């Protein structure tokens, strides 16, 4: 009898701990499911839907809960890739005068593109309602369109250049241009859902 009591108490204690652990280690609600749904439904008609879904589903920045959050994330992705492309261009070593000219112009155009995207991101964080919202939307669309034009112009500057340099630059800048195009699409969508997220002036 004396040897069974400690064993019973031990088993009872183990059962209690197991019961408690069921609640403390149970699965938490999947808070990312709504974010994933928003990304998929918003990206389905984007210029490059597969890229849109992939880049924003794996986005590791702030939480994406509204169309405004999604547009901000898209611009951040574009800005990040533009910076990486600019770093790549700056590190290239070229020989001919034509290559140097095209590369110099492209670096400048990418700097302008990043400036436009930075202004866009700043404005997206302070959207208002009414007439101010329309004015802001006009600015946003103008800036992102300008960024996209700069990226296309950079690629055009290498049309007369053959070989690996041209293909490498085109690959890098096309990557940026596609996510920028998606960002522009998601910004355009904000007009349809502004009442759900816009802040007061």
UniProtKB/TrEMBL annotation:
GO terms, molecular function: enzyme inhibitor activity
UniProt subcellular location: Secreted, Extracellular space, Apoplast
GO CC annotation, single: plant-type cell wall
Record-annotated Pectinesterase inhibitor domain positions: 34-186
N-terminal signal peptide: 1-26
Pfam families the record matches: PMEI
One GO term (biological process): plant-type cell wall modification
Keyword tags: Apoplast, Disulfide bond, Secreted, Signal
Principal location: secreted
Gene3D superfamilies: Invertase/pectin methylesterase inhibitor family protein
CDD domains: PMEI-like_3
InterPro entries named in the record: Invertase/methylesterase_inhib (IPR035513), Pectinesterase_inhib_dom (IPR006501), PME_Inhibitor (IPR051955)
Family designation: Belongs to the PMEI family.
Name recorded for this polypeptide: 21 kDa protein-like
Source organism of the structure: Nicotiana tabacum (Common tobacco)
